[in-house]
Write a structure and sequence with these properties.
It contains five helices and no strands. The protein starts with a helix and ends in a 10-residue tail after the last helix. The protein is elongated, with a radius of gyration of 21 Å. The chain has 117 residues and is an all-alpha fold. The chain has one domain. The longest helix has 31 residues.
């Protein structure tokens, strides 16, 4: 993908140099954006799972509530941003199931097996 973008930039440079109409490589730009979004979904999910595993090993009373809230808020915003960017598919849907489980656990004060006391 990077080499294709470099070639597109090279062609655009030639077009500017020769004062030609600059071609917009919309398919390349859209594909690159979609790939970056999909990679972001997987990175966000991995980050979420790592944090969830860490939090589940700490007694609920010892969790840093501010840090937990900030992390959940950040990752929730990322997931919903990707939800807007990507069509309904397995990649996008695969990142969403963890959020309701955590929201429910936080509302119950950590009961329910996700956060142990």
């Amino acid at each position: 993908m990077d080499s294709l973008q470099e070639r597109a930039a090279l062609f655009k440079g030639y077009q500017k140099r020769f004062r030609l109409e600059v071609t917009r490589f919309s398919a390349l730009e859209e594909t690159h954006g979609e790939i970056k979004a999909k990679a972001g979904v997987w990175e966000t999910r991995q980050e979420w799972e790592t944090m969830a595993e860490t939090w589940s090993q700490v007694p609920f009373a010892e969790l840093n509530a501010e840090e937990l809230t900030n992390s959940v808020t950040k990752l929730t915003k990322q997931v919903f941003a990707y939800k807007k960017l990507l069509p309904e598919n397995e990649v996008r849907v695969g990142s969403l199931p963890l959020l309701p489980a955590w929201e429910g656990a936080l509302e119950r004060g950590g009961e329910g097996g996700i956060l142990q006391e």
